Amino acid sequence: MTTKKHTRSRTRRAPGRARANRPARRRVLLVDDHPLTREGLAAIINRQADLEVCGEISNPAEAMSELSKLKPDLMVTDMTMPGRGGIEFIKDVRAMLPELPMLVLSMHDEILYAERALRAGAQGYLMKDAGAAKVLEVIRLVLSGHSYVSPQMSSRLLGAMMGRSPRGSKSPIEKLSDREFEVFQLLGSGKNTKEIAQTLHLSPKTVDVHRARIKEKLHLKDATRLLHHAVRWVETARSTDLTQPG
Questions:
Q1: Which residue of 35, 75, 123, 199 has the smallest Cβ count within 10 Å?
Q2: Which of 160, 187, 210 is the last residue of a domain?
Q3: Residues 6+ apart with CB under 8 A from 35
Q4: Which domain holds residue 185?
């Protein structure tokens, strides 16, 4: 008795055809000095069918040197990192790659930072406590060419633009220009005039001019009070950052 063997025909796909039929995944560059934040974000993003992380970088200087090689479709960045300040970093990236969308993901109060970030060239500002689903939603929104701030911030910006509400929050910090704000942050981080000048690529004399303007705007009588105020402000911002998730 002869037994016939039934074999299933298998269609062999040409190598690479399955991949070729998939939509290209959009490349996201993460710039954040907290390793756990980068790793957590990368894990969330890489699980998506339409997104992938093309690089994880801890500081602005390295990001500037790697941007052209990594060719991201979107950069997600924190605001405060070692070296170059967040606002100036965004401006530098905008000058280098005018078409690159940027999303700021930070624990720092959007009242103080969001408008500055958008003016500098970012397309969105989102707080880190928004949750994974919201982060992915906003990433896709910015990649599609739209801008994002929270509904509360959007209403505030629109009201200020149309003159229906006072521009600025109750905090006098918001009266500072972007450059003065950078100097103020660096002062609070313990840097002296020479170090601030090197970090921001300014002359020490220019830094002193900014310090004088900051004192005037914040109604501080002398350099000692300015330093104490800056240190307290930075320590408060850092403690908020460290006590929040991811």
A1: 35
A2: 160
A3: 58
A4: 172-242
pTM metric for this prediction? 0.69
In this prediction, residue 246 has a pLDDT band, given cuts at 50, 70 and 90, of very low
Name the E strands within the chain. Answer: 26-31, 51-57, 74-77, 102-106, 124-127
178 by DSSP, 3-state: which?
Answer: helix
Q: Is the pLDDT of residue 117 over 70?
A: yes
Centre a 10 Å sphere on the Cβ of residue 199 and count the other Cβ atoms it contains. 19
pLDDT score of 162: 57
Final residue of a structural domain among 119, 138, 160: 160
Say if residue 118 is in the same domain as residue 145. Answer: yes
The amino acid at residue 171 is S
- The Cβ of residue 241 has, within 10 Å, a number of other Cβ atoms equal to 17
Residue 170: the pLDDT is 54
In a domain, 14, yes or no: no
Give me the pLDDT at residue 126, please: 94
